[in-house]
């Protein structure tokens, strides 16, 4: 089962700046070899279900290991069985409509 | 790693009523033996990381098997390393403050 | 337009415990006279759109005034035009199915 | 109060394809003159609190008017009082760390 998630991890108890923790997660996602794209409020990740969720778990483990005592993550999780659809397809289908 | 999640699964392409699909997920969560509590916008689930996420995956598989071609799930995922905290603890700590 | 939201406010830069800030929000919601119910990962609130969102804004203002430099809120927002449905109706329709 | 939101509207009861509804929302956001950027799982929008939430409300009204009987939106809402930060700043601060 392929999945597209939107992953937004917020460490708590580490002060106001969390970019160091987010950067560590980006590296973990990158090393997993999954298609991904960061935006201002999270990162879209696309891949097989088990691989994507293994990455999410590794991010929690890594951010705790960096000293964050508490983590609050938000995930959107999309699956479909009617057809294959990539992250790029989703954006493209809306942009197509906007052009016409 | 223990986790408390808030799990809200929305099947798409099945019409306006989704209570049948949500009920199927409740049964799956119940059968997994995890502590859980349903509210008007999802279900809190508490347990070991791998067990909780296995349940989320089973729910996606079951709802697709019921005929939903597309699923859009929202998950909040909380972990902490500073101390143990249950779902009930979280609510109780706020209610304590409100009483004083 | 009636709305049912699930509201989860997370203050950042205030340390690991946020129950004081959540309790302040509960008081604001209570004083607004809106139907609401807290769970382990947020609060369901039901009411007219403008009143509900005014409460969300007041909570952000109050939590900043308590000293939180940064807030990260997650909201689920449900509206429907086909029929009236309360928070209690949503839970009841699933529980009915589970009993049969 | 400036806000950065991540806005993801899901119409229900309209079948599996929702790109027509998402495109209508993009047009509403565009016409409001707010800074925004679409990704595969929503749209980041930046601006004054009241203007941003007025746009969210207009999107719900417009998508209902297009025939969707039910809407399920997810919003992330970020405010901060310690300093100004744009959507671009958020992404840039992580990318800076990744380059070094």
UniProtKB/TrEMBL annotation, chains A, B, C, D:
Check the record and name the InterPro entries matching this protein: MTH1187/YkoF-like, Thiamine_BP, UPF0045_domain
* Any matching Pfam family: Thiamine_BP
Residues of the region (Disordered) are: 79-100
Q: Which family does it belong to?
A: Belongs to the UPF0045 family.
The record's section on NCBIfam families has: MTH1187 family thiamine-binding protein (TIGR00106)
Residues in Thiamine-binding protein domain copies: 5-95
Q: Which domain of life is it from?
A: Bacteria
According to UniProt, the name of this protein is MTH1187 family thiamine-binding protein
């Amino acid at each position: 089962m392929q999945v597209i998630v939107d992953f937004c991890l917020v460490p708590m108890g580490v002060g106001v700046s969390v970019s160091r923790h987010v950067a560590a997660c980006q590296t973990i996602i990158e090393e997993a070899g999954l298609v991904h794209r960061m935006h201002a409020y999270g990162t879209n990740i696309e891949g097989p279900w088990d691989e994507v969720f293994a990455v999410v778990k590794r991010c929690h483990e890594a951010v705790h290991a960096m000293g964050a005592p508490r983590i609050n993550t938000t995930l959107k999780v999309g699956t479909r069985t009617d057809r294959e659809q990539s992250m790029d397809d989703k954006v493209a289908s809306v942009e197509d409509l906007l052009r016409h």
